[in-house]
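Structure first, sequence second, as always.
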């Protein structure tokens, strides 16, 4: 899974997201700013392409995953940002071809296209992440969880929290030890 921010952060904000979701697109700059402000917090993406967004959501999930596999975490997040910048949302797909997303020279266009179309492992990863979300009864995007990487405890957040709210959630999770938190694997 791809991480944005400090890989050794105490806390991880896990986003269950759909790249065709207009609400995820709207939340993206807020989450990025939150992570950039806090060294103790990183961001982990978890694919949940919603059925109503069809093949466009599936293809974009494969696109960013392939970009990450070919170029590492920074290229994954560059691809997420590029998709959001060029997505028409709600299942309408990208407004530009893949070669205009600005991912070269970080990744070869030929390798990226081959990965998106033919890589069964990438398809399996997207399917497994979707199945995990369904198992956790997550059916809306974006959905956020906050994990304390020391204790392994995780809480589901009611929404994307502002800076003060996130700090409070982190403090609560650390000090309470997540006594009332749902343990998530």
């Amino acid at each position: 899974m791809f991480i944005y921010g400090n890989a050794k952060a105490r806390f991880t904000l896990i986003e269950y997201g759909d790249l065709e979701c207009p609400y995820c697109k709207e939340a993206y700059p807020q989450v990025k700013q939150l992570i950039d402000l806090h060294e103790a917090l990183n961001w982990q993406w978890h694919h949940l392409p919603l059925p109503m967004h069809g093949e466009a959501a599936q293809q974009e999930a494969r696109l960013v995953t392939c970009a990450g596999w070919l170029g590492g975490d920074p290229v994954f997040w560059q691809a997420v940002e590029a998709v959001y910048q060029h997505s028409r949302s709600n299942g309408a797909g990208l407004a530009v071809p893949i070669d205009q997303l600005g991912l070269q020279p970080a990744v070869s266009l030929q390798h990226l296209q081959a990965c998106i179309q033919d890589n069964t492992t990438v398809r399996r990863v997207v399917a497994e992440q979707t199945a995990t979300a369904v198992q956790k009864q997550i059916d809306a995007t974006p959905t956020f969880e906050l994990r304390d990487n020391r204790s392994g405890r995780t809480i589901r957040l009611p929404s994307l929290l502002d800076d003060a709210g996130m700090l409070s959630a982190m403090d609560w999770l650390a000090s309470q030890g997540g006594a009332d938190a749902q343990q998530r694997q």
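Margin note: The radius of gyration is 16 Å.
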